[in-house]
Each structure stands twice: as structure tokens, then as C-alpha cells.
Records
---
Amino acid sequence: MNKFSRNQRITAITKTLIENPNKVINLNTFTNMFNAAKSTISEDVVIIRETLDKLSMGSIETISGAAGGIKYKYGISDEKVEEFAKNLCIILQDKQRIVPGEFLYISDIMFNPEIISTAAVILASQFKDLEVDYVVTVETKGIPLAYEVAKKLGVKLVIVRRDNKVTEGPTVSINYVSGSTKRIQTMSLSKRSICKESKCIFIDDFMKAGGTALGIINLLKEFESELIGIGVLIDDINTSKKLVNNYVSIIKFGGIDENNNPIVYPEKIRKK
Amino acid sequence: MNKFSRNQRITAITKTLIENPNKVINLNTFTNMFNAAKSTISEDVVIIRETLDKLSMGSIETISGAAGGIKYKYGISDEKVEEFAKNLCIILQDKQRIVPGEFLYISDIMFNPEIISTAAVILASQFKDLEVDYVVTVETKGIPLAYEVAKKLGVKLVIVRRDNKVTEGPTVSINYVSGSTKRIQTMSLSKRSICKESKCIFIDDFMKAGGTALGIINLLKEFESELIGIGVLIDDINTSKKLVNNYVSIIKFGGIDENNNPIVYPEKIRKK
């Protein structure tokens, strides 16, 4: 069996933890991988933990007991959150982004892995102390962000569809009223996608009045499940009355100014 | 300024590389982060590279010149690919997955970050030596997989829509014929989502006859762009005539057997 130096073990342990956020990894995984004693691995973990802590790159928790081990939780410093939100505002302020109807073109942002993975760290760290079973989103634009949040929380993603698909098996559909356009819309979800009595958070790209979020709350009731958190990348503050109260966002959108520029500014997210 | 030990530097460098696959990272990033000499960082990188290599966890390339630096490329061992495909087949063989019309319910798999991130490593490593500009997919089920492949290749994701959305600005739409159902369908893409003369790969969850892939080839022609690769998680081998030739898949689906069980087996992916 190959022997590994401390430096080598630290490389492999760090990689494994970063790629499996919020999952309990038993130390035996590493004692087997490196043919090393548990005490040796524990010392490696102490070094990794201290470094991540020092650089505000997340934290490592120790879970004791038979099913115990270590668990990496994503984290990000206040400065990094602020820097990210400021840079994103500069990208969003481009008047080329305005499409007829005072909408902002944001697909390139929502589908850019570099932006979305940082946004997901910021949103996931808001919910990391909750016991979340699923991250829920509605197709289509919010899917990459919701996927990344689910991954960083170590849970599964559930995608609510706009219509019934033959490949979904039996589904539950509900109608809801869009808060901004007042139009009746339908959302549907495969019956087998969520276990009863689950706790979910809803992640989306953009919130206007919150009609979709309210729809999700009602849809989850059909699954005897509960929505315990809402996170969006951009919150439209021009909508006078929001249909939901507790939600977090990263950017505020205030419409278009007299010079035809989008009004955007960073939301100050309270660190948890 | 804080001093960092080699162990600490290795922790932070590993994390940064893993989170930014296929992106050139200048060594100055690390000399600044740790207040260390370039030669010191180079020695750290040698240790990380050797470890990743030894454990088949990917590779680190050095890019010389003014814009140079180091670049992490995802990699996975043949044994891990085989193990992953075998385990996925066991999950897929469950007869509960069959929905009317001989379809397989796979949404839970396509939306499971643990499964999708490994599948994406396998697919991304097939295309890692191509110069890819975008990963393209069609909504909805393939989005998380396509997003992960894009992230691992360090490029942007493009999502083709089934209909026009008001938030997309001007779009280009084409009609295409589904290869299996022979129905005419529409796909549309925002004009601003792809630069001219781009090279793209198409990632999807499931391939029947390949009508969608053919549609993507034609849609990309409207953007004066080219499809240079196709990767799917599951390939339906019951479709006698495929409309596209070169594609990679991880699992083969051969329909339902006489005992009402799905026929699935691993595709042997040629390692690049």
C-alpha cells in the first residue's frame, strides 16, 4: 500500500470535503484511503479546519457517535458577499439588458456557473442551520441556482413544471394567480418527487409580487410539506405589495430610471 | 500579514482549484493570498498535482506566458466510472420507475446533485481536450447535468426554450421533427445568448432517435455556430435509426423485459 505524506492527505481530504458539502463523511473513508491512523487523519482535519476558518472559506463540523464524522459547510466572508453583489450590479446596470416591458435580460447571468456558484454559496449560507429536505424551484431560469443551493446544502432538488409531462407519472397540479400580472397559471409536480412531511426552501431567479412563491407554499401543502425559506437572486422592489414576507435576496431591482438605466443595488444580507 | 504553513497553503490552493475547473489561475493569486514567493507556491502545486494524479482525481496543467498560470482539469478513473454506471443501473432497474408508454421516471436522478456531479465529471472528461465555448441543453430535465458539465469545462451554459419568453428579447426559433414521435416541435433561443462562430456541445438526459440533437445542430447554424459534441446520460437503444452519429452516453436503455423490468446496462465509455 502506498504511503501518503500529510501534504498529500490534506490535498485529497480537502477535495473530498469541498465536493461533498453538508454530508457527513466518516473518518474511516480517509483511514482506508491513506492506510493511516484515525488520530493522524484527525490532525489533518484540524489543519484544514483552521485554514478554512482563517480565510473565511467555510467550516468543518465534527459529528460524534457511530454515524459520525466530519461535515464541510460552505461559508463566505461579508466582504466577499459585498464585492460579489457590487460587481453583479455593474453587470446588471447595462441598459442593453432592458427588453420591452421593462424586463431585464438576465439569462446569461443565471446560466453562468462562475456567478451562480457564488450566489448559491451566499443563499445556502442563509439556510445552513435549518433542517432542509429539498430545494424547490419552478422551471426554467432559476434551475441552475436552485441546483447549486441544493448541492451546497447536501440535499435534493425538486423542479416544479409548468405543464404535465408524460415521463413524470401521476402529478399534482394547482392553479395560482401571478401577483404582478394577475393571470391564472398552473404548476404541477410529480407525486413521487417529495416525501410527506418534508421541509423545503424555494429558490428562484427573480421575485416580483411573490405569486409563484405563494403557489409553491400551496403546492407543498398538497404534499403535506412545508416551505421554511425563500431565496432569490433579484428582488423587484417596485411591486408595492408582496404576497410573502420572509425571503432573502442578493440584489434589489428598482425599475428603469429617467436615463433608461436599470436601477440595481446590493441587498445587505444579514450574515448567519 | 499572516504567515501560512505549507499544509495551510495546500488546503486553500486545492479548494480554489477544485472550485474553478478549467480556468487559468495566475500564481500571483496565491503569492498575494499567502504573501509567499512564487517558487514556494510552485512547490505546493507540485505536491497537489502528484496527489491528484496518484488518486486519479484529475490533473493540473501549467500554462506558460504572461497570461499563464495553473489550470485544474477534472478526471476520474475507469474503475470509478464503471462503479458509478453499475450503481446507477441498479437504481434504474426498479420496476416502479416505469410509467405508462414505456417511459422511465428519472427526474429524481436528474435532480440529485450527488449523481449529477459525478455523471458530469464523466461526460466533461470526454470533451476536455476540445475548445468548447458553450454547453447547450434544451429545457428542462437535462439542465442540472448540462450546468455541471459547463461548470467543469469552465464555460457558460445556454438553455434552449420550448417557447418564447418576454424576458429573452429577440429570439430565433426553428421547427424540428421529433425522431421518435414524428411530431413537429419548436425550439427558440435568445439572439444574444451565443456569439457567432462558437463551438458548442449538447448535453441532455435521454436520447431516443436524436431529433432534438439534430434540431440543436440546425438552430446553431442560425447562430453561425457549430455543434462539436453530444453527451447524454441515457441512450435508448430501442430506436432503430439514430439521426446523429457521434455521441457519448453513460447508460444504455433497452426497453422493458417480459418480467416488466427496465433493461439497463453501462455503456463502456472510452477514456480520453
---
Amino acid sequence: MSTSMHAAFRQAEKAKALDEVPVGAVLVCDGDIIARAHNLVMMRKDPTAHAEILVIQEGALALDTIFLSNCDLYVTLEPCAMCAQAIAFARVRRLYFGAYDPKGGGIDHGARIFSQKTCHHIPEVYGGILESKCSSILINFFKNKRTLNAPK
Amino acid sequence: MSTSMHAAFRQAEKAKALDEVPVGAVLVCDGDIIARAHNLVMMRKDPTAHAEILVIQEGALALDTIFLSNCDLYVTLEPCAMCAQAIAFARVRRLYFGAYDPKGGGIDHGARIFSQKTCHHIPEVYGGILESKCSSILINFFKNKRTLNAPK
């Protein structure tokens, strides 16, 4: 479990190197990582290019199915409502996430997608995996942004 | 307004011709349709390939920005939570939708994305545009599916 979250974290580091918000994800099927992705919103000029969306797309293509029922998704940040609903559509088996996101999260916060009566698939959810590391990379990223943008 | 929803409906018809769930969308900027898309989940083997996601991606690429603040989105069905959150991320100005979706919708039903305190952008929303037509194409699509799958 921790190995896969470390792999997701390495994806977050790749996002950071591209000056993207550092969130990374991997998809695991039968013990193997079958897809890796990180946030690419700015590079792709695509507001939907979150790590989870991209890793689901890559995983579905790799397995040639829209249902990832035997797959577990690891992501460094609590998914937003968009990604949470995509995880439900893809019928992901288990969701592991790193940092909690009180402002933008859609699992334990905000829309709480999996708690909605109309949600047709609810994965097992484990939050706070490798939390400190996953949280720190985001805090430092935004701290640097503020420093860079501060008045001289 | 009605012209744009008719254009979205023609996209839904294209989806139907491909045996995809018939939902279509267009994105309008300064009076011009700058992007057209329809549901492509099965063809692309992509559980996130809803009409709204695709039309936002196409529109953002066309305008070379992730913020579609001057754009209005027309879609034949009430967006789900995934698409509603994508619409918020893209800062779409106005959302017009056709049929209401009590089971899968995320605007007036379910997660009610734009009513969440954490939602950082709320478009103007107008539901029920060309409702009967947009609803009928979906009802007939699923009726035919059931007939085809009924025991002989």
C-alpha cells in the first residue's frame, strides 16, 4: 500500500517540476501499477486534467474497459467532487489518498460524493496515507508561489 | 438560446447514431459556437468522456485558456457531479440544460455541486430548455435497449 502511494508521490514530484499543482496518482491492478499520472491542468490547458481523471483514462485504455472493478487508485490528495464522481463511474474498488483537502475535497468534505443516495458505486476509502509528505509538497508549492508573487 | 440547445441536441443525435447514451453539448462564446461534443464513453473506453467534459476540453484548447469565463454551456441533460464540478473549475458563465436527471444529476439533484459552501464558482443555471425533446431521445434510447435485451 505504502509502495503504491510512494509511486503516486513521485508523480506529484513530476507535476511540481513542471510547475503544476503537485498531485499524483497511480492505478493498481492485481498488484501491478498499470497507470501513472499527475496533474496537467496548465500544461494541457485543460481544467479537467487532474491526476485521477488522467490515471482512470489511461487505466481504462490499458484494460480496454470502462469498469476498473479490480483496480485500486492511489492519489496524494483527497479527490475533488469531479474526480470522486469519475472514480464512482469507473467502479474503482479501493481509493487510497494522502492529504485531506477541507477546501477542495469531495470525499470527506464538500459534496461528499460517496455519501450521496444517488451514488451508484462506493469504493472502500482510506485517507491519510503518507499524509505528511503528500501535504508538505502542496504547502511548500503554494508557499513558494506566494513568495514569488509578493510585492518587492 | 434555443438555437444553441438545438445544436446541442444534434450532438445528442450523433451520439445516438453511435449507440452512445444520447447527450450532447455546445459551448458558446460571444454568440458563436466554439466547441461541440457528445457522449463518447463507450467508443473511447473512457468513463469520463461525457459531452460536457469533452466540450470544455475542446473550448479551453480553442481559446487557449483554462477559464471559460465568457462562455455559456448548453447540454441536453442535467450535468452529473463530475461535469458540474468541471463546469465550476472552468468558470463557465451560464449553464443551460435540457432534461432534468433525478437519478444522475448533480445540479438540482444528488450532490448539488453549486450549492456546496466550498464551490468556488457558480454559473447562472437554466434548466428545462427544450426539455421534452432532450428527455424523449434518452427515454427512447433506453426503451430500445431494454427491448433488445428482453428474453425472446
